[in-house]
Design a protein that fits this description.
Elements: E1 2-4, E2 9-10, H1 11-19, H2 25-31, H3 42-71
Helix pairs in contact: 1-3
């Protein structure tokens, strides 16, 4: 799915930037070597960012909970 038509960024491009450490739209543009143009893609990027960050937090929480349970 195309998230940013100005820069032809797909959701996979955005997800790859997030996995590489991007946590803000500006960092996604930088990772993909482009810049914001019209700004219509920012809400979609924010949604993908929020989802990815929530998933990352949940994975970290589950990993730490699992580690604590193993030590008990």
């Amino acid at each position: 799915m195309i998230v940013c038509s100005c820069n032809a960024l797909s959701h996979r491009d955005v997800e790859a930037a997030i996995q590489s450490g991007a946590s803000r739209p500006a960092e996604i543009y930088t990772a993909r070597k482009c810049r914001a143009q019209c700004g219509n893609c920012v809400p979609g990027m924010m949604c993908l960012l929020k989802e990815a960050l929530q998933n990352r937090a949940m994975i970290q929480k589950n990993a730490s909970t699992s580690f604590v349970e193993q030590r008990a």
